[in-house]
Design brief:
2 domains, binds magnesium ion, binds adenosine-5'-triphosphate, single chain, 9 strands, two-stranded antiparallel sheet, Rossmann fold, five-stranded parallel beta sheet, alpha/beta
Amino acid sequence: MKNPFYFGKEVVGEAFTDRTFEVRGLLSDIEQGLNIIIYSPRRYGKTSLIKKVLGIARERGIIVLYLDLYPITNFRDFVEIYARALSSSEPPSKLKGFINILGKLIPKLMPKVTLGPKGGAEITFDLGKIFKEKEAVLDDLLEAVHKLATRKRKPAVVVFDEFQEIAKLDEAEKLERQIRTHIQKQQNVAYIFLGSKRHLMQDMFKNKNRPLYNCGRHFPLEKISSDDFCVFINQRFAKTGININPNDIRMILKITECHPYYTQLFCHLLWDNCREQKKIFPNHITAVLSQLLREEEHSYSIIWDDLSAVQRTLVKALAADETLPLFSHAFLIKYGLNSASAVQKARRTLEKKEIIERGNGHYTISDLFLKKWIARLAHPKTDALE
Ligand SMILES: Nc1ncnc2c1ncn2[C@@H]1O[C@H](COP(=O)(O)OP(=O)(O)OP(=O)(O)O)[C@@H](O)[C@H]1O
Ligand SMILES: [Mg+2]
């Protein structure tokens, strides 16, 4: 029998839960051509949510472009991913007619239909000359979806997933400026920017000196609500004939803090461990917690070994209490630190390395189980449930 809990890449269908409010809001923004900036810590479900929304948008006749920018390392990659997204906005059955339209929209990329490795037809581009005409190629691409939407009298949506990767390119500033110039004129196209590196995203969109400053509505994605997760977990276990008590579900969610990825990972392991006996008891739950911490031991030790003494003190303090006023006199005394500036420096480095992040007014350790691992390291007898 297949494990009903899934973790890793985005989830679809039955494995996707809740987010009704977000789905409704995003669809309405898309239909009105509004731009949206969605950010959350890693693995909160941004891609899953947006793919769900895009599926519905497509059914409603909206032109959809989805670009995953995670792998880009240069301008050429950006152009190629954009051009591919544009060419897959039409179903393969309409390729023949579409290639003529594409040829007019992005002539410099010389799109043509070729036979793919699996025998099906696909559109390919000539990217050899783009370096001589970078700006013009990008102008064509960024206008293409708008022209397509106008021609078809349909709204369109362009999603840039992992948009913060743009900031690492040599041409970042120019690229952002050009994107801004085009998107602000296009009433029929909604642009959605997704990112998990909060400090990079906020700098791109909340810094007055950056081209994309305030170019859309900010949409911080939260965790999944405990009530929704309770129903989901109960149903997923029940579907495979396993009974779980509501108190035990609450115990799981207390450990995973309703983090979408960790909740699915935790339940996945629990299901594996209990599939034979078909019953779950609290000791199974604590066993999974220990198992998870044990499995991550190696990677967490590498992170720990790489930290300076002040950085270690800071993460230990945060693992014990995330609401601490980090730079107060009382904090320095309590943790035997003698300089607020050294704490500031450690905080900056930890944030840059994404070991800690700021949210809801205080700092937290980004990886929930790293936090529990550090708490156990600092106080071996501490129950990581606390
Ligand atoms: N709506 C949901 N219902 C159930 N599980 C979810 C949901 N959203 C996310 N998850 C869980 O979180 C995992 C990560 O989801 P996803 O890849 O969409 O997140 P992300 O925020 O895009 O991550 P990343 O920051 O790595 O890009 C999924 O594999 C799944 O286990
Ligand atoms: Mg993602």
